[in-house]
């Protein structure tokens, strides 16, 4: 099991992890989970294995992600909370092929009492140095 680093006082650690896990679980047919996890105007910035940067409104990817049926697991590396903002460093590991894994920096904000992901910045695991999954 990977040790999770919590920086500062993160009293809502469990709720932050729950929302991020909704995003991961959304890849197994969970359109509703994705919609609950992300703010409707959340963005993605993703650096692929070749170094190409893609940007998009995350909701534009929901259907493709929910229908992908990718066998992914979450690996919480670090969680930081400062009041009503938080960030998670997440290993997004493909269970069937670790070489097709990602490392995400996820930003969250608490809106009307609920945590929402507002931004996902991702790098293919080949570009994630020490944060990539162990083989």
From TrEMBL:
It comes from Vreelandella sulfidaeris. This is Nuclear transport factor 2 family protein. It holds the Pfam family Lumazine_bd_2. Gene3D superfamilies: 3.10.450.50.
